Amino acid sequence: MVWGRLAEFRLPRKLQGRVNRGFARLFDVDLADAAHPPEHYPTLSAFFARTLRPGVRPFPLHGGIPGSPVDGIIGACGPLEEGIAIQAKGITYPVAALLGGGSDAERFRSGLFVTIYLSPRHYHRIHSPLGGVLREARSVPGRLLPVGPDSVRSIPDLFPRNERLVTLMERGALDMAVVAVGAFNVGRISAAFDLGWNGPDGRGVTNRKGGREIEVRRYDPPLPIERGQEIMAFHLGSTVVLLLGSAGGTLPRLAPGLRPGEEVRMGSPLLQGPVAD
């Protein structure tokens, strides 16, 4: 896409620094927690995918309480009922379609979901809400429709229609899926858990040229993942859908104050208590 190419265009260092700072002012980007100043990043795309200073996004003290995988704004959240999640008021979609098919959808017939929208001002790296293991990942091709609030309220099956990178993880009896959904101008998603999947140029797993089918990678043994570990990154903003399956037992309720329109930061507690080990 044109915007993606512009975001990766390298300007002279001083000029690029001004562009990055101008973007930060335009979109009210909070630079206080960034690991480096805007002048450090050679492209606007690199600035989007900036890292944070260590310790600025603490997770809950109890290791069994999941933290938000990203900075962003809650789009929707609540219980999964018969494998159905809510996109917006009056619009639902099947979890099976979001995951790209397979028998894994049965693990999420009941449980909880949280949808988080990342605007241009947010931190764009995606982290694991809990420690556990990553057993499978899927790159699912699709459209790149806008995922802003107006689109979410008006386009049926928006998230299952867009390109996405799906990670399937486990913590004991708990099943967990973190789904990074692409959007207009946001086709590139990279995998931090499998760097080789990003290609020889490191561009990412998604947004590749040519006709594509669903690509599945299974890990045997599963990859150990720590809570808070980076697992993916957007190279512009988009949406993350977190699924917690309750087939292994009852889950705690969502954390107080977790409701559509509320801002969350990576590491913010998502549940009122810990999940069972």
What does this structure look like?
The chain is an alpha+beta fold and 277 residues long. The protein has two domains: 1-56, no CATH class; 60-264, no CATH class. Helix content is 14%, strand content 30%. It has helices spanning 2-7, 13-26, 44-48, 95-99, 149-152, 158-161, and strands at 72-81, 84-88, 91-94, 110-117, 125-127, 132-140, 164-171, 174-181, 189-191, 215-225, 230-234, 239-245, 263-264. The strands form three sheets. The protein has an eight-stranded antiparallel β-sheet, with no helix packed on it. A three-stranded antiparallel β-sheet has the order 5-11-9, with no helix packed on it. A hairpin with a 2-residue loop joins strand 7 (164-171) and strand 8 (174-181). The longest helix has 14 residues, at 13-26. The radius of gyration is 18 Å and the shape is globular. It starts with a helix and ends in a 13-residue tail after the last strand. The mean pLDDT is 90.
